[in-house]
From TrEMBL, chains A, B:
Residues 1-61 form the HTH tetR-type domain. It comes from Kitasatospora paranensis. This is TetR/AcrR family transcriptional regulator. Pfam families: TetR_C_13, TetR_N. Keywords: DNA-binding, Transcription, Transcription regulation. Residues 24-43 bind DNA.
Amino acid sequence: MSTQDRLIESTQELLWERGYVGTSPKAIQQRAGAGQGSMYHHFTGKPDLAAAALQRSAEQMQAAAGELLDGPGNAHDRIAAYLLRQRDVLRGCRIGRMTQDPDVMADPGLRAPVQETFAWLRGRLAAVVAEGVAAGELAAGLDAEETAAAIAAVVQGGYVLARAADDPDAFHQAIRGALALLRTV
Amino acid sequence: MSTQDRLIESTQELLWERGYVGTSPKAIQQRAGAGQGSMYHHFTGKPDLAAAALQRSAEQMQAAAGELLDGPGNAHDRIAAYLLRQRDVLRGCRIGRMTQDPDVMADPGLRAPVQETFAWLRGRLAAVVAEGVAAGELAAGLDAEETAAAIAAVVQGGYVLARAADDPDAFHQAIRGALALLRTV
DNA sequence: GTCTATAGACGGATAGAC
DNA sequence: GTCTATCCGTCTATAGAC
């Protein structure tokens, strides 16, 4: 892997663990095994590097979720597959975490991947919900957008509960609770 | 208000806006209109002050939620009142936000108020859900703990969606989605 | 491309005068 | 109780040699 790639990957990890304010160029360099000069040769500075890292994380998250939501099975099963997918619960969501960082949200280049990822996710979920309602797998009256927002929110909020309790089970409880409510046709 | 109180209140605000890592003693002093010496006279340092601020925020959050969950109306109405209560959506949750800050979660004194608040909230919600199921206001098979976790998660995740979209309506969509699912008896 | 040296600002805290 | 002075480390970046 190139130095440039190692820098991006290290930044992805550190943004996930410590957020933007909590991540220093020095820490990135150390994790990537690269020197100062090297980093500033490939990137103009911390914001530039963070933008590259967030774009990559956003692509990866969309690819992972898209695979399940576009996968095999009926609509209900695909939503369940998305909700039940293996996750690093206590680490939380790499993208969702960024919404808490004012410096990220204030910089359009950093904010864009976050905004786009959630817009994409909600749209994709809404389409599957609509499909499920049409097929009679989900309750007839459900609003697709609202239901999709609720599903996405349960995942993001589940991470919060799990970290607060320091227990991944809090996440899984929330997911099971949501699935039970969806099943109540 | 005493200098001590102003320091605590300023810290509450800054922790909410910028998180623990992003909040400096200097910024706290400026917002509180207090000098360095004054701050270090009343508190041993940043962690001590943050602990006082988080404890106060935790109390306030529990008081606000408790009032609605213990208020008038049947179980379903109290859950709806909690979900629909007026919120500063784009600012997010003062307590939930802290779960993303590794320095907070690593310090037992800072972590405790966060952990306790969510444990309390989930327990309180579960009791109301159980009451609603018993009264036939909520679907018969619902697991109280899981449903409560899902409800708490929708709120926390709703904040994430709203901040990502820079639009409070994302939060309200998630809430309406959750309420619709709860209504589906 | 990568290295070392250097720089100004800020973070977090201490000391001692008043 | 509050103020000013001072301290050492880190943050983010630039400069220039190799």
